[in-house]
Each structure stands twice: as structure tokens, then as C-alpha cells.
């Protein structure tokens, strides 16, 4: 009897231990999230939101199916933090064939509990980009002969070394969490090296080479990984693959945080408000301009921009408007166009993949602004040639008739009003006259 009770107790303890050792076994789905394109605020919002919402009770694995040239450092670190804190294991899968996990994608792969690649993909080129400068390639900005002694691939200037060393320390810490090749990761940061899938597997940069998500789930089933700082045994063989695409809010955020779209929205907003100020009561330009400018400011707050460049763009627009009103023979207008182009080129200096301002957009916006400036200038010149229709000068050239006349003076009716008038030659009552000048309340007229 006692022996039977011991056997039952041992069996119960074994079952309890198995349940504790494999918390993912109770889940029934593998959640697939697609990262396709540059990693920015919209992608970070999408990935972090889905990771935070995933429950260990229903989600056994989160798969980040990735194809990215890189992106913003802030967005990448936000995703990494969510991955490391997630109670649900996260796998980064560089797929489909032909995809890549470059720059920021490499850091996300190293932060994940499982990293996999499809055949024909590559990973690496994780050298950080310096804001406002060139990619921090080996020895960038310095002569290799004068480079001080240090690690291979380390730039000479202090600011660049700080950025590189910070990135190296960060990716090595991610490698230590998940037991991956930290030396290759450092080489990917310092020298921007990349690896294809088969070599990445040999060097223990990735854990698996799989053809698709179901193949990945079969290969990693039973592996023990680190999740939220604790070991966990995966049970992924029977998980149902569920893909959750970004919703309309994420797609809208991705659209407006595109630097080209944000830049054009800013221009529409500024020009709309200017048209409203010059034509009070038009309503439509002011309404469209206000909405566009507010959306642009929201997008620019999420992007790394150079505020001096943004200020130059606004100064350039102001100078072109001033030229249209002052008429400085084009000098102020040309200066405004130059300031506009320089400011637009300076405005997005990050050089992060997918977050550059297109030169075609800059040229198109400059040509459009110059065209508006020329149209305004032409309208101003035409208005100066028109006869004056208000004030005292408006009577010059007007016609009327004499009401009473004697000699060279009398009274005339012009524009429905009676005026004192004088002429060089005698006129008769009721004669048609034309105003040729004015001296206070006295009109100078002649026969019409």
C-alpha cells in the first residue's frame, strides 16, 4: 500500500515538474508578426504592442518574420526591450529567401530567444550610423596612418569611438543573454561584415536554418531557451500558425513617419496657412494647412531631424514670400530658394536606411516653391501696371459733363459728384469733359 502511494506521488511530482519546465506546452498558437521594411516608430509600436498583448497561456511562440535594411536606433532598442522582458519566447526568422536582417535587424535577432534564417538570406552590417555624418566605417574621418593604437576597425575620432563602442557593448550583452557568437557580432559592428544563412549557422550566429515557419517550429521543439531571464523548454511542434498584420492605425503611422511624406505635409501646412492669411475667409486653405501642419509636427516629433535644417526651410519660404511683396529684383527670392534646398537636405541627417529624404522630393518641392514664388511675383508686377481704382488718383481719366461754366472755370459732374473745375479752353454747359488732373478739391479738365 505504502509502495503504491509512493509510486503515485512520484508520478504526480513528475507531471508537475514537466508542467513547470514546459509552460509553453499549454499554449495553442504561434503568433507571426511581419517586419518588412525599415524599422521605425510604426514598426516598433506594432511589434511592442503585440508582444505586450501576448499571453503565455495562449501563445507558445512569437515569430518576427523579418526582411529589413535596418532603421532607427531608438525604435530598435524599444523592440529589444520588449523582447527581453516578454514572458512569451520570441524567435526572429529572417525570411523569405532573399530577405536580410541588416543593421538594426541584427540587434533584434541577437535579442531574440531563437534566431533562424531561411536559405538565401543574410544577416549583419550592424555598424551604427552617426547622425549628421557618414556611416562609421573603419577609420571613417581619419587617416589610417595617424589612427591611434586600438582595436581593428575602430575610428580615430572620439565621438565615433563612443558610438561604436556603445554599439559593441550592447550587442555583446545581447549575445551573452542567448549564448550566441559575440566575437562575430562585434566584427559586424566594427567592420560591417555580413553572413549568409549556412555560414551564420556554422558560426553559431543563428540557431536554425528553416524553409518556413512550420519547419522552424518543428526544428526548435524541445529546445531550452532563456525567456525573461529564466530557462524555458519549448513545445512548438503542434502550435497553430497565426499571422497578425498591422492594423490601419499602424499603417497610417508608417505613412506619415515616412520623411518624404512628413516633409510634404509640412510644406502643405505652411503654404495653406500663408494663403489663408493673405485671403482671409477662404477657409479651405487654412483648414487643410492646419491639419497638415499638425500631422507633420506629430510625425517630425517621432523622427530624428535637424531643427536647423527645418528652420532654414521656413526661412527660405519666408524669403520667397518677402521677394513677392518687396520686389528686390530676385535677390531675396534666389536666397530663399537656396536656403530652402539647403535646409531640406539638412533636415533628415540620420542616413538610417529607409529614413532619408528623397532628392527627387527635395528638387520637386524646390521647383514647386519657386514656381509659386514666380507666380506671386508676376501677379504683383501685373497689379502695379493696372490703373488706380481707389483714392484721389482714381478720378484721373474719368469722364463727366459740365453743369455750369463761365470762361475757364465752372462746375462739373464726375462719378455722380459735383466738383469745381478749371480748363485751358472755354467750355459750354452740358459739354462732355475728361479729368486730366486734380489739385485738392479742384479738377483740371479738358473737352472730351
Describe the fold and architecture.
The chain is an alpha/beta fold and 448 residues long. It folds into 3 domains: 179 residues, 2-enoyl-CoA Hydratase, Chain A, domain 1 (Alpha-Beta Complex); 136 residues, no CATH class; 56 residues, Nucleic acid-binding proteins (OB fold (Dihydrolipoamide Acetyltransferase, E2P), Beta Barrel), CATH 2.40.50.140. The chain has 14 helices and 16 strands. It starts with a helix and ends with a strand.
What is this structure, in a nutshell?
The protein is an alpha/beta fold.
Key phrases:
single chain, 448 residues, alpha/beta, 3 domains, 2-enoyl-CoA Hydratase, Chain A, domain 1, OB fold (Dihydrolipoamide Acetyltransferase, E2P), 6-stranded parallel sheet, 5-stranded mixed beta barrel
Structural class: alpha/beta
Q: How many beta-strand segments? A: 16
**Euclidean distance between termini CA atoms:** 138 Å
CATH topology grouping of the largest domain: 2-enoyl-CoA Hydratase, Chain A, domain 1
Low-confidence stretches: 15-25, 131-150
The global form is elongated
Supply the CATH class of the largest domain: Alpha Beta
Q: Into which percent range does the helicity of residues fall?
A: 40-55%
For the report, how would you describe the main beta sheet?
6 strands, parallel
CATH superfamily of the largest domain, called what? 2-enoyl-CoA Hydratase, Chain A, domain 1
CATH architecture of the largest domain: Alpha-Beta Complex
Secondary-structure element order, as H and E? HEHEHEEHEEHHEHEHEEEHHHHHHEEEEE
How many domains in all?
Answer: 3
